[in-house]
Queue: 2 jobs
Job 1
Amino acid sequence: MRSYKDIHNILLERIKSGEWPQGGLIPAEADLALEFGCTRVTVNRAMQALADGGLLERRRKAGTRVIQRLTRNAHFQIPIVRHEIEKRGGNYKYLLIGREEVTVPQKVQAELAIGPDESALHILSLHFADGKPYQLEDRWIALGTVPLAREESFDAISPNEWLLQQVPYTNAEHVFRAAQPTPEDDDHLKLAPGEPVFIIERTTWLSDKAVTHVRLVHPGHSFQLVTRDQNAATL
Amino acid sequence: MRSYKDIHNILLERIKSGEWPQGGLIPAEADLALEFGCTRVTVNRAMQALADGGLLERRRKAGTRVIQRLTRNAHFQIPIVRHEIEKRGGNYKYLLIGREEVTVPQKVQAELAIGPDESALHILSLHFADGKPYQLEDRWIALGTVPLAREESFDAISPNEWLLQQVPYTNAEHVFRAAQPTPEDDDHLKLAPGEPVFIIERTTWLSDKAVTHVRLVHPGHSFQLVTRDQNAATL
DNA sequence: AAGTGGTCTAGACCACGGA
DNA sequence: CCGTGGTCTAGACCACTTC
């Protein structure tokens, strides 16, 4: 018997081989159900999976088309710094530089979407790999959303790791860029002359409320992000 | 009546609110079906969607748990350079610098996984936004996989755009990093003194055969990658 | 109006894997 | 063993959208 995974793979093969070209219309569910000798529901499952994977576009009455691909996708999983370093056998160290509850500067107000009179927790910390500075973490936590953060000293655990464990989030925004370091970056990261930094800026939200905004600064020579993407889920 | 999307959202809410904590076991399908007054199949659909979205982990007999989140996810859609520039109203220009069929240097052999005697198409080109260099594209195309590329001059269309239209791929690998420019980068991109570059390296594959390897170099001051990620599909 | 996908139900059997 | 998730079928009705 044909399972919906079998059908998924057969359809995937037809797309990859070009038998069904990009942008082309493919047979209706009912026809494929006949071809494969199963119910329409089973074909539907397979096609929905392909649609979720971004390979098909489906519209009632209009039918199902192979997506015309216009972008390349890159999916990163950014681990907790400690895990990343320990996983490759490195020696991890964490250092808290500063922690204070303050009203937020205008630039951060915009990121967190909080008022000028509200305060937030500002935490500056440094992550080391084998004794060398690996990441500077400059973080703001919205206390209105995460009051629990007031109770945490962040002496022993980094804000990044603490937040990931304690606070769920619904969406996030990332910005990646290359830049010349600020004097402060340089001071903390002990950069070589002329060495650029790789910056990740991230804001996370829980429903409509901002949770945190962070600027993660890495020395350029010792950092890169790598991803391996499947064009379609294997199932 | 409760649809599986309704159920999906209810379950999602219980996860977000912390009613079902990270790592915790949640009720079995049959129990939830009873609670919501629908079939087990409908609950199954909802839970599978959450599992696909990476929010639940399911094992037979062991039951379903809320995922203990250990990474942040960032999903990028990297558009065709021309589209990117035109979309924000910029003036796009493409310039082919060089195109030759050669045996590949050892470094690229490793990336493409092809033999030392096989040849590939090496194409160097430059993309401009409003008259200023925006991206240097240094590309190798495996002619064994894409013989059609021999017929294309790449005078008028960039290899990036041509490949995306012509050649399907099954998986890709990306590396993002910040670096000091090479003299050649500097020469083509007309960089300011000390300005870093943002480099994207990408290799794509069609099943087991490498399609292409490319090094995309951007001036640091005018480039950043931005993403907005939903923690879970909205459905 | 009619074609196409979206989804539900009831019942059934299977597959995995923990106790 | 047996509880839990995985999946199928047959039939049905609905929802959207193009013709």
Job 2
Amino acid sequence: MNSVLSPRPDTRYLVLDSALTLFTERGYFSTSVHDIGRAAGVSIGSIYHHFGDKEGIADALFSQLSGRMEALIGEIRRRHDSAHDQARELVARLFELTESEPRAMEFMLYAKHREFLPGQGPVCSSRPFELMREMVSQGMTRGEIRPMDTMIASTCLFGGPLRMITGRLDGVITQPLPDCLEAVWDCAWRAVATTTP
Amino acid sequence: MNSVLSPRPDTRYLVLDSALTLFTERGYFSTSVHDIGRAAGVSIGSIYHHFGDKEGIADALFSQLSGRMEALIGEIRRRHDSAHDQARELVARLFELTESEPRAMEFMLYAKHREFLPGQGPVCSSRPFELMREMVSQGMTRGEIRPMDTMIASTCLFGGPLRMITGRLDGVITQPLPDCLEAVWDCAWRAVATTTP
DNA sequence: GTCTATATCATGATAGAC
DNA sequence: GTCTATCATGATATAGAC
């Protein structure tokens, strides 16, 4: 965070890190590029050199976080066979991430990107969400999940857990999410499962 | 919309109606008070006279819509006995409202109010959401809903339906919501119900 | 209560030295 | 690649006549 400690800090990283904090704390529109520069200890000229314009900052942030999510889901899908295990592991990991990196989670799935990233479609149409629907789709062909529209199944399976996350980020839910993973997952799976345990 | 048709249009109504459209189409921060005035056919001076400042417009909008939601839930709770019937009716009505008044729904449960209404807490802590939790709580004491934390039960019951609504508002879901009410409600209720039908 | 005209100021973005 | 200084625009909000 300071050039005294680290002689050659990566400007791009510094900027993105500060931007994430400010965007989630005050919102994109209440954050000026000057604010970001001040928080990152980087001049406004450098920022425009690296990102082109303000939207470029949000864009880079979205790409990076989206990539991480995608990688996470890919890893989970390789490690588990059943849709049940895959989805459960995903919810568990998202709950952990909500506690350890609340700002990253907030920016990814609780920001209204359409308002400041006209290029990007809605989050739900981004690659990570596509992968989640694939997960559900396979579970349906395997017979783990009742036959129904894939979009509906996916939304109903992950809807509860995702709203737990936004509730937690809002401070409406006070308990750390991993503490209620079992209860929430139980509800989520019952919603779509073929057999009740 | 025009003073030719109606000789004495209510300025407040005109402004709020235009503001709702613009806020949901472009977002709060990309809408200027001038824009609202132009769309409503009202001068900027009048707007400031009635609402004090820009935030006052959003505030009035939120109060009014929140009041309508509250009334809707109250009516539903009076008309049905069981939590099952109450919650199902609520989801049905919200699905209908999403089709008939998408902007109202979008402003109520898909806008990040914290970013432009610092006074208001998060939506989930507003009165309508409180009433929904009461609904669930009663269902639990009646034995309709499995015993668990009320917040978790409420989030898991309504999480799927609410995300269907945001998905529909985003255009990710193309089917009118009332068409998939049964499938969605089936999932939602299974998530928390004591007995599976 | 409604209007026009205006004050004030912050922001996104650029220029150009180093 | 980084910096400072500056521009240009457009926004919120106000003043004051009617």
